[in-house]
Amino acid sequence: MRWNTILLTILVVLGIGSSAEATPGMLGTLPHGRYVCALPGDAGGAAWRELPDASFRIENASTYRTSDGSGIYLMTGKKVVFTRGPMKGVRFERVGNSTLVRLDDDGKRTKVRCTRGGTPVSG
Q: I want to staple 120 with a disulfide (CB 3.0 to 4.6 A). Which of 37, 46, 60, 115 is the partner?
């Protein structure tokens, strides 16, 4: 059985594959590593204000880890949704190879950026 078939089977069993939030596109995974999340700063201070409690690490097989535990995410096209674990329901849009922008409940971009391995970049 191919990896995508296995993942799709798992998602359907968990009730995720039929979700109204599913976004058309190819299933994918994020590059592994630590993602540092931050808000933009201001002209009078630091360029970025890190949000340590929002940061996470992407691991193998569509899993992530935070200081509160681990979970699973689903990436379809450029949309990423955390489906299990401490970040369940958190959504992002991938705007670069190593950068995610957090989405609000309406699917609109927020100012929160999460960048793999370092300083957040604008996107």
A: 115
> CA triplet 8, 57, 10: central angle to 5 degrees?
15
Could you report the per-residue pLDDT of 3-18, keeping only the tens digit for each?
Answer: 454 555 455 444 454 4
Comparing CA positions, the residue from 121, 40, 55, 49 lying closest to residue 87 is 55
**Residues 37 and 112 sit within 8 Å (Cβ to Cβ):** yes
Tell the CATH topology of 21-116: Lipocalin (2.40.128)
Paired with 113 in beta bridges are 38, 101
**Rounded distance between C-alpha atoms, residue 24 and residue 76, angstroms:** 6
**Sequential DSSP letters for 69-120:** EEEEEEEETTEEEEEESTTTT-EEEE-SSSEEEEE-TTS-EEEEEEEETS--
